[in-house]
Design a protein that fits this description.
The protein is of the alpha/beta class. It has helices at residues 33-36, 51-74, 83-94, 127-134, 171-181, 198-205, 222-228, 249-252, and strands at 2-6, 9-13, 20-24, 99-103, 119-124, 139-142, 156-162, 182-193, 233-240, 255-261.
Amino acid sequence: MLGARKNGRLRLMSPVTGAPSCSLSPGAGAASAGGASLVATERPSVPATLSGNMDAVSKREQTEAVYREHHETSRTPDFVYGGPERAELFHEWVGTGARVLDLGCRYGALTRHYLAGNEIVGVDIDREALRQAAELGIEPLWADAGEPLPVPDESFDVVVVGELLEHLPFPDRTVAEVRRVLRPGGRVVGSVPNGYRLKNRLRFMLGRGPEADPTHIHLFSPPAIRELLADFENVELRYVAGRFTRLHPRLFANDMSFRGRKPLS
């Protein structure tokens, strides 16, 4: 999706037709017409010569169907992995007064904790989840976070990747996209399940898969997260959620939250 500016507004060009499909205005909220138009509801009619692009849309719709079923059967709309502890940490780390891109925002259950005082664009593969997120005041953008993001370079102060990277086939590419869209000095705030916590190790010893969630295709260790964030400064890792985390954070925490800063130059 290509972008062009007109009258101070960013026009997002459809990857299928090349025509303007929506607009992003730095000051626009989710209630504006530009914000509402970010959620695609129907596939446009296009010439057969553009079948390659149609295949890309079809692939996204297939992925959407998988995650919509997962969202509806596995989690309630207000579910936040890691509970209040992670929500409070993200509220602190995201801060206020920022333009925020929230990748994999789902229904906005976590996003609502840092919504006040920020302008937030929420990205998700599930359009139904995005419609509900928009009701909270989140500007919705239908996209696959595993693909190049349809937003311009250096356009956000904070990018949130909460419980997302473990779902993506190439998380390093998504992290590169995060760095691209962040302004110099911008921050990434995210989290992943603690893939090698004691519970998972015991499951593996018993001949069971360490992860029960079929949409998780990566397990992350602390060194793996630091390697992913090698191009960021001031990287911090924090272990959260778990009754015995204080005894041994790396073994007992259910989640690893992280943040880092894009260099100024």
